[in-house]
Amino acid sequence: MKKKFQSYIKLVKLELTSSSVREELLNEKKFIIGYIAYDIAEYLAPATVLICSKCMGLGHFKKQCSQITNTCRTCGDLVDDLKLHICSKIEKFIHCGLNHKSNSLKSHVVKSFRSELTSKLLSFNNHSSHVSQNGKIDLNKNVNVVYNNSHFSGLPVAQNSSSNHMLNKPDNLLAQMAEVNVHLSNLKVKYDKIEQITLAKNDSDVLTKEN
């Protein structure tokens, strides 16, 4: 398989709505398409880290926050009213003190929190696949979990309508360029016809002048 610009695709993510089909594919560990066998591996997307917009804490929303005052996401100061707060504009992450905003996803504290949370979800996902005969989950069954943060992609950034528009812009430009090429081709055909008529007229005028 190839991408739009003819570069090869090494991995393809399949999203299934049927849990039974998913388990069947994972048990088979491969499936065949067009006489070619493709390997199947289970993929668990990294957990999305919640950052409270009130206290800048990790793992909860503003409605669940117990802090009374507000935390400035830039300087990290505690204030009663953010609208009246005069910020120093000096960025300071409240969890590590480094120079980036407290809601930044690039902080090693956020990355570590996300890795640990994803590892727990992966571990629970492996435990949940071992079900006892009575239909209950056997959490006491030993499962070897191998977790590597490099196996997971980065945390996706929330996209709004404007970002989706930017993603579609290259496709629109390519379509418009194709239309321009068609118009140029039509103009060239018309120009060639006009040039032939002009040459024929010049030859006729020369012949008339000679006569």
Features of the shown structure:
about 210 residues, mainly alpha, two-stranded antiparallel sheet, 3 helices, about 5% strand, flat, CCHC-type domain-containing protein
Describe the protein's architecture and organization.
The chain is mostly helical and 211 residues long. Among the domains are: 1-43, no CATH class; 171-211. The protein is 38% helix and 6% strand. The protein has three helices and four strands; from the N terminus they run αββββαα. Strands 1-2 form a two-stranded antiparallel sheet. The longest helix is centred in the C-terminal third of the chain and has 50 residues, at 161-210. The chain is flat. The model is unreliable at 130-145 and 156-163 (pLDDT under 50).
Write the layout of secondary structure elements.
Elements: H1 19-28, E1 30-33, E2 36-39, E3 70-71, E4 78-79, H2 108-128, H3 161-210
Antiparallel strand pairs: 1-2, 3-4
Please state the CA-atom Rg, rounded to the nearest Å. Answer: 31 Å
Strand content: 5-15%
Query: What is the H-and-E element order?
Result: HEEEEHH
Total strands: the figure is 4
Helix share bin: 25-40%
**Helical segment count:** 3
- Secondary-structure-based class equals mainly alpha
Bulk shape = flat
